[in-house]
Amino acid sequence: MKTGLMAGGIALLATLGLSFAAFAGPSVDTDGDGVYDVLDNCVNVPNAAPQDCDTDNDGYGNMCDGDFDQDYFIFPSDYTIWLGDAAGGYDTSGTGTDMDCDGFVFPSDYTRWLGTAAIGSPGPSGLYCAGTVPCDL
Q1: Are the C-beta atoms of residues 95 and 68 closer than 8 Å to each other?
Q2: For residues 74 and 122, what is the distance between their CA atoms, to the nearest angstrom?
Q3: DSSP letter for each residue of 38-99
Q4: Domains identified in the chain, total number
Q5: Is residue 8 part of a domain?
């Protein structure tokens, strides 16, 4: 008798669990980098580790965050910060001017910055805390 009740209870829980899971929907990885959007700090730019750095800890990965002065817009003032770091070859400002996370600030980072400047703002990021500092998971 107890075995029947236990089996019935397990079957019921399994059915309910599958039903709830069906409403959750599939996990999405928009940029195809192997990181699901809800955990991706650059949803539209493939930036899986080790290229997923977020130097300024604002929830937007360096690869999609050309906002170096943290005003949520990408303007010439951000270029000035990049230029200062590029003169020394390293991200000494701690703002993410090393956009490809290779440890150096080179013209390739400027090219990536131009791409973000065309959008005008950082992101998008799938992290719930994006735009707040610190944004740690």
Answers
A1: yes
A2: 7
A3: GG-SSTTS---TTS---TT-SSS-GGG---TTSSSS--HHHHHHHHHHHHHTS--SSSS--T
A4: 1
A5: no
Can you tell me the distance from the alpha carbon of 8 to that of 90, in angstroms, rounded to the nearest whole number?
63
- Residue 89 neighbours by CB distance under 10 Å: 12
CA-to-CA distance for 45 and 52, rounded, in angstroms?
10
Count of all residues that appear for the chain in the document: 137
Domain around 81 = 27-119
Residue 25's pLDDT is: 67
Residue 3 has pLDDT above 60, yes or no: no
Q: What is the pLDDT of residues 101-132, one digit of tens each?
A: 999 999 999 999 999 999 999 999 999 999 99
Return the amino acid letter for 52.
D
Cα 41 to Cα 56: distance, rounded to the nearest angstrom: 12
Residue 18 included in any domain = no
Would 17 be classed as within a structural domain? no
Nearest to 52 by CA among 25, 24, 33: 33
Query: What is the reported pLDDT for 136?
Result: 76
**C-alpha to C-alpha distance for 115 and 112, rounded to whole angstroms:** 5
